[in-house]
Write a structure and sequence with these properties.
- The protein has 2 domains: 78 residues, no CATH class; 87 residues, no CATH class.
- The longest helix has 23 residues.
- With 177 residues, the protein is of the alpha+beta class.
- Strand 2 and strand 3 form a beta hairpin.
- This is DUF4183 domain-containing protein.
């Protein structure tokens, strides 16, 4: 398949397959049309190789659009590997309290850091002053950004006054260093 006539024949075969596919779409035979489109694509890939003067193997190819063979269907380019990130340590600090430990202020619920315990059950005096981000969970459900504000001594949950006193509050500070 190295001369222009053979390449042209492959393109003609692809066009015929596409015409048949169009006819089958109009008739509602979608599965048949899809098969013909795959055949047309295979003919076009072979024509592309032919035009590049590359000779695909002459084996009877059983490839499909979903599982191409390696003898006549070109492999997609391998994407470049991402650069290695700089060495960093990822740690987290987790704290727990019940809603009853908070103080209602209008519609909000405010907690002093000292009303929380760490994940070992030890009382704390402050939250981390430096962290990458924090996650807030109420009743085990992660909350949307903007629901809470936090500093080293306080946590304020916007609209938290509506919580039941027994609702568990869990805050996790993620630190990337």
């Amino acid at each position: 398949m190295s001369d222009g006539k053979d390449c042209s024949e492959l393109i003609d075969q692809a066009i015929d397959e596409l015409k048949d596919a169009k006819k089958h779409v109009k008739e509602g035979k979608i599965g048949k049309a899809e098969s013909e489109i795959c055949d047309a694509l295979r003919h076009l890939e072979k024509a592309k190789l032919c035009l590049k003067r590359e000779d695909p193997c002459n084996k009877c190819c059983q490839c499909t659009c979903h599982s191409p063979c390696t003898c006549c269907c070109p492999k997609p380019p391998t994407p470049p590997k991402p650069p290695h990130p700089p060495s960093a340590a990822l740690t987290s600090k987790k704290y727990f309290a019940h809603a009853s430990a908070g103080m209602v202020s209008g519609q909000n619920l405010i907690f002093a850091a000292m009303s929380f315990v760490d994940d070992q059950g030890n009382p704390i005096s402050t939250f981390p002053s430096e962290y990458s981000y924090f996650n807030l969970y109420i009743n085990g459900m992660i909350q949307l950004n903007g629901v809470a504000a936090v500093n080293s001594t306080l946590l304020m949950i916007t609209g938290g006054a509506l919580l039941d006193s027994g609702d568990p509050i869990f805050i996790e500070f993620v630190i990337l260093s």
